[in-house]
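I would like you to sit down with the pair of lines that follows and say whether tokens and residues agree.
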Amino acid sequence: RNLSILDSDRGIEVAGSNRIYIDNIYFGEPFRRSGTGKTGHYGLSINNMTQDSVAENINIDQHFIHNFSVASWATGNVYSNVRTLTAAGDHHSAGANNNVYTEVIVVEDASDMFSSHRAGINATFWNIRLANSSTINFPGYSSNRFPSVNLIGIAKWATSRISGISGTYIEKDVTTPPNIYKAQLAWRLGGGYSPSPTPTPTP
């Protein structure tokens, strides 16, 4: 919690764990930055059967190959309120399932948002926004990589369901709540929901 991690190759990796909480992390590349080339392998990785963990208020100001990743039967984990230079929302094979990406702002490039390895079922992407939508577009969605997926609040797709792909739900115009994890947590605790401030680009 409350860390600045600079010029890392592998930033934070959570493996074989339950109910881990990661909050207010800044990743930067002050000495290695050179245009948009990759300067690290993993920013955040949740893998090896890790369950029910949360990483929120994350500022990825570094160009990783995999900015925020789930792999190897990671289940029920959440990435919440993330500012990232590139999307690189990696589902790194081996049955990672039922994980959530919510309230994510992509600054430079979203072309690799859905270009990861194959995922398990029920990945949810809720309110993934672009910092400059006039110049950045989300790529097409591939059923080969996501056997079932929920895409909520992403204007790329105009229909509620992709033809021929069962278990896939798309709703492009949902903007409330902006963060499904925080809204469900507030409801469960009996309190009100308040939006998160966007992580700033400095440590």
